[in-house]
Q: What sequence folds into this?
């Protein structure tokens, strides 16, 4: 049993109680705290120096990213964020001015989205900066979009362009809060999540939770300019379509809805969000796993290899 | 400006919104999420290897402590805990069996108190284990006990015995959840908090938040057996009364209520919680700071020195 298997096993035996609507395994936990028309969303997300940012990252961008990641998870449930607690673990003697700039970046994004920062903690982590943000939000009862509702025949959509996030977007991405709420208000969205580990990996979470498979059209996958530039300038880099499928930290939304709603969605989306691309990239099918269709046919996308793109 | 001053300044300018009832600066944040009769409590707490536990600490006790600290903060508001999210940051290749045992300790305590564990995250911190727990709970409207309500003339009480927690209690303490709710249900508790950094330091938070001072009776401060043993066996150790005032991680409750309620409180407490000591250690007075009274008179307890005990 490897590390991830064990952790998966641990999270199957977690203590629960009647307030839990959705526990571990979705973008946020969903809890019934007694509000007549709304449910509570609850999420934490941590960023660590050397993994999610470097010593050279401007501190404002570290703070912004630390909060934006959790906001993206609230978006993935079609929720609205309410309040955050900030845990900053840092080496002793860390420059307090840097901490101030981290807060500046975080506070600015919080104000944009009406999020209150209601406290937190500063503690010691001698070797590197680590920031964990806990978030609560809410969603109208019956409107939380889980990962488990995808149905065979659904159309699969993604917002924005994918891949190459390391060139900058991983620090500057916009959590798709307004877009997700608009989607859930106007359409019956069957399943949704945000893309943190790459489409190929993240879409599998929806497929597993829903007990279905997916067929993607290779030419429909929206490839970012950053992924194309990187592939062109560096022959050792991933081909751009592979980068779009497998690069992490896009923080776009992937979601499914009945294919009969797809045209109406595309039409109204263009009016409402003219600056954000929305792409239909394929469909949900019976079965499991991901098939990629291109001019040479349909190919199974292996879980840990992308041979077809090499 | 030192590190703590800057952080204090940062937390004065935090983004807020109408859901915030009590923001940064109390044991938990208090939020109005629309439930007709209850408010939400929100808290995070982190423990770090080398500071809050060691590599030799049994993993079950690490997990238990990580959760118990936050539960103690929920208790300090007279609240009931509902759900937790667990962030574990650990070196690559960390023994998954140890992670399992951490969860075992945490889950057992969660079950005791009816707390659901609704997810979290495992991330990388290469040099040491760090666990951050986010907690939500709730409290009846009008029943949350803040730090800011102490009034001149109040009696000051503490539960349990103080000092010497490092000998073992820092890993085994019981969050005083039932006791705190019983207190708030039956008495008008003016101010309350849990003791994490030592009575002398923590009581000052109540005094500052309430704009008052305190006079403590040296002989009334309940000294733990561990603090006495340590002082007797090691002449370089703190005198036991000083340990009781300044050792951290007691996780007992300190609270104030009108002195006319003190006798009734002591009588009914003894019936309800016969195994947990409750001590009246002094009174709230006009002014600021802490005075200690002993047979030689009344002495000011300096913020960062305890000369009178040396």
A:
């Amino acid at each position: 049993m490897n590390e991830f298997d064990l952790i998966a096993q641990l999270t199957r035996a977690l203590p629960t109680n009647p307030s839990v609507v959705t526990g571990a395994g979705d973008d946020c936990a969903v809890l019934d705290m007694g509000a007549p028309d709304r449910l509570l969303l609850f999420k934490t997300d941590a960023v660590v120096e050397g993994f999610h940012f470097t010593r050279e990252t401007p501190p404002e961008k570290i703070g912004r990213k630390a909060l934006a990641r959790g906001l993206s998870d609230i978006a993935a449930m079609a929720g609205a964020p309410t309040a955050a607690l900030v845990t900053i673990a840092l080496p002793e003697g860390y420059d307090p001015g840097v901490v101030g700039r981290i807060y500046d970046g975080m506070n600015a994004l919080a104000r944009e989205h009406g999020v209150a920062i209601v406290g937190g903690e500063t503690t010691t982590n001698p070797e590197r900066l680590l920031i964990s943000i806990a978030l609560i939000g809410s969603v109208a009862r019956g409107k939380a979009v889980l990962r488990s509702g995808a149905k065979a025949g659904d159309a699969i959509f993604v917002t924005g362009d994918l891949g190459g996030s390391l060139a900058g977007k991983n620090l500057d991405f916009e959590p798709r809060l307004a877009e997700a709420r608009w989607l859930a208000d106007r359409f019956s969205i069957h399943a949704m999540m945000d893309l943190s580990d790459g489409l190929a990996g993240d879409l599998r979470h929806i497929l597993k939770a829903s007990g279905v498979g997916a067929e993607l059209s290779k030419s429909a996958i929206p490839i970012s300019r950053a992924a194309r530039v990187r592939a062109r300038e560096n022959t050792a880099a991933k081909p751009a379509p592979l980068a779009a499928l497998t690069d992490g930290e896009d923080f776009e939304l992937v979601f499914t809805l009945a294919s009969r709603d797809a045209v109406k969605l595309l039409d109204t989306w263009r009016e409402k969000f003219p600056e954000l691309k929305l792409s239909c990239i394929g469909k949900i099918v019976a079965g499991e796993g991901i098939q990629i269709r291109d001019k040479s046919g349909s190919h199974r996308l292996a879980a840990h290899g992308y041979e077809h793109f090499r």
